[in-house]
Specification:
Helix content: 55-70%
Number of helices: 6
Distance between the termini: 44 Å
Number of strands: 0
Radius of gyration: 16 Å
Number of domains: 2
Largest sheet: none
Strand content: under 5%
Shape: globular
Length: 124
C-alpha cells in the first residue's frame, strides 16, 4: 500500500433518491473549508461501520430520511449484529477524544460537542 493521496469520486442522484437529496443539502450547509474533511471522515466511518457488519452502511443510509435518530441507529445496529448494548456512557467517549483538541477545526469541535450531547441523551 503506498502512502500517496487517493482521489475518490462518487455521484449523488438527488432526483432519484431522497437520501441523496438529504445528503446533498447537508453537505451544502457545511462551510466550504470543512467539506473535504467531512467526505474523508464519512468514507472512513463507512469502512469502520462495514468492518462491524457489511450490511450496516447500506441499511443506515437507506433509513436516512431526515428523521433518523441516534436511538434508531443503535436499535438497527443491535438488530443486525445481535449485540445488545448494556449502556453507552459519555464517560467512555470522552477519554477517546481527549488530547486531540489541537487537531480539530472549530466546525468539527462543534459537531463533536453536538454528538457528545446526543450520546448523553441516550443514557438509561
Amino acid at each position: 500500500m503506498n502512502n500517496k493521496r487517493k482521489k475518490i469520486v462518487a455521484y449523488l442522484h438527488p432526483s432519484i433518491y431522497l437520501q441523496d437529496q438529504l445528503a446533498q443539502h447537508y453537505v451544502e450547509s457545511l462551510p466550504t473549508q470543512v467539506r473535504g474533511d467531512f467526505y474523508r471522515q464519512a468514507i472512513i466511518f463507512g469502512a469502520a461501520l462495514s468492518s462491524v457488519d457489511p450490511r450496516l452502511v447500506n441499511l443506515i443510509s437507506g433509513f436516512f430520511n431526515g428523521e433518523l435518530t441516534a436511538e434508531n441507529v443503535i436499535k438497527l445496529i443491535e438488530q443486525v449484529t445481535g449485540y445488545q448494548s448494556k449502556s453507552t456512557d459519555v464517560d467512555v467517549i470522552l477519554p477517546v477524544s481527549s488530547g486531540i483538541e489541537g487537531y480539530i477545526k472549530p466546525a468539527a469541535k462543534l459537531a463533536e460537542k453536538k454528538a457528545i450531547g446526543n450520546l448523553s441523551m441516550l443514557k438509561k
